[in-house]
Design a protein that fits this description.
CATH class of the largest domain: Alpha Beta
Largest sheet: 7 strands, parallel
Number of domains: 2
Strand order of the largest sheet: 3-2-1-4-5-6-7
CATH topology of the largest domain: Rossmann fold
Bound molecules: nicotinamide-adenine-dinucleotide
Radius of gyration: 18 Å
Length: about 260
Amino acid sequence: MLKGKTAVVTGSTSGIGLGIANALAAQGADILLNGFGDAPQIRALTQGLAAEHGVRVVHSAADISVASEVVAMVGQCVEAFGRIDILVNNAGIQHTATVRDFPDDKWEQILAVNLSSNFYAIKAAMPHMRSRNWGRIINIASAHGLVASATKSAYVAAKHGVVGLTKVVALETAHSGVTCNAICPGWVLTPLVQKQINDRAAREGISEGEARMRLLADKQPSKAFVTPEQIGGIAAFLCSPDADQIRGTTLSVDGGWTAQ
Ligand code: NAD
């Protein structure tokens, strides 16, 4: 379905981003992986993806909290593959503390990574998409783009911002072949969530398994984690012709979290 197309997936050396990169590569898209990790791990990822799906894969080590690095990453994709058709703004970070105790630098960093990077990447990719009158912009927001939780001020503010940005971009591209939507996952068991499970186990003096169950029970009625593969499948669907008129919306994949 995506043969001849190219995708930039930010934060795709781990977790959800890797699931999305896999799903798009499986459809034939060439992939620019972005994210941190040690060199052998990243080499294994790029070579593995390329070999498994018969696509071209390059890696960008851009720190997407820096606008100029985001622009350079989009440029690297165009230089390597000649085009950018799909942009998945996925990279994200978390820090939990009440507003009173929330460090200013953490606030700035979360806003930069989780929100501002999306703006800079979209701005850089848009002319390339418009020139071919086809494009897919998929922003990985969160259940926290729709509802809030205590101790997550920066994350919730950034993710609500992502949902707002998604709507604006969708309206600005409504008469074109470029679409922009947001996916809003609930709990997915990735390193980002594992840290919250470990913190909870330590805080409440319980086992990791019990902390995992309590985390799910608090928010996610299905009491089952969403998987990176499922998010990847939804991203691939958004790239299909069936999704041509899905514009400016949020797709909740949250085990019922936001139905409550
Ligand atoms: P993760 O920690 O497994 O992966 C994060 C990725 O982002 C890694 O590849 C990391 O190297 C990269 N990254 C971090 N900071 C970066 C930076 N400054 N520049 C470039 N790359 C950077 O996280 P995840 O759980 O897979 O989260 C992916 C996205 O999904 C995030 O936006 C997160 O907010 C969102 N999300 C996650 C969950 C969940 O339960 N895991 C739920 C809802 C939304």
